[in-house]
């Protein structure tokens, strides 16, 4: 009898750990699946929150850019309206006729003597040495009677207003006047 009782006990002793292992493996698998499901839900919730935040930021940026676009379009339209008043035919702008300013002709007509000393240099100066004045701009200035550094050094507000009708956006009155005075002083050794 001990022999027959021992065999089932030995079988049960072998099967019990195997059954315990299988049961534990099954329970652990279910637990891991639950954890994976929880992590997946948490991940999806966080991704959804990030996507929603990104959508809100994108909508805000689009609204801001639309406002800025409208503002820039309005500014562009205002500038176009201002530019449309300028003569684009390529001719020099007409200068206002006043008692102190002679009418501009195609030939050289020096600016009024009140702008500097009566003595002018022997010939025209190279106005392109002033930053911002190129060959074409120099030619137009010479057509208007501004041929020397002295003439530009003595520019005043009325000159600027007269020139401003066609050149105003490019002219830097105080900067060019100061540079012209400096170049005149270098070239002729005297104050403009």
- Spell out the helices and strands N to C: HHHHH
Cα radius of gyration in angstroms = 44 Å
Biggest beta-sheet profile: none
Number of helices: 5
Beta-strand percent range:
under 5%
Mean pLDDT: 76
Flag low-confidence runs: 96-110, 112-118
Strands, count: 0
Distance between the termini: 137 Å
Note the overall shape. rod-shaped
> Structural class, judged by helices and strands?
mainly alpha
Helix content: 55-70%
Question: How are the SSEs ordered, and which strands pair?
Answer:
Blueprint (H helix, E strand, L loop, with lengths): L1 H83 L50 H9 L5 H5 L3 H8 L8 H16 L4
How would you summarize what this structure contains?
With about 190 residues, the chain is mainly α. The chain is built from five helices and no strands.
């Amino acid at each position: 009898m001990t022999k027959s009782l021992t065999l089932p006990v030995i079988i049960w002793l072998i099967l019990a750990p195997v059954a315990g292992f299988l049961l534990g493996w099954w329970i652990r698998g279910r637990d891991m699946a639950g954890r994976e499901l929880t992590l997946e839900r948490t991940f999806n919730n966080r991704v959804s929150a990030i996507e929603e935040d990104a959508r809100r930021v994108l909508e805000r940026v689009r609204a801001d850019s639309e406002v800025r676009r409208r503002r820039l379009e309005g500014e562009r339209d205002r500038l176009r309206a201002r530019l449309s008043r300028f003569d684009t035919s390529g001719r020099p702008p007409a200068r206002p006729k006043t008692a102190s300013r002679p009418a501009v002709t195609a030939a050289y007509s020096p600016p009024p003597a009140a702008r500097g000393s009566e003595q002018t240099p022997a010939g025209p100066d190279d106005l392109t040495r002033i930053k911002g004045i190129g060959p074409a701009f120099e030619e137009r200035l010479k057509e208007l009677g501004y041929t020397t550094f002295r003439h530009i050094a003595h520019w005043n507000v009325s000159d600027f207003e007269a020139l401003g009708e066609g050149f105003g956006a490019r002219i830097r009155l105080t900067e060019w006047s100061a540079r012209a005075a400096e170049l005149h002083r270098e070239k002729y050794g005297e104050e403009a």
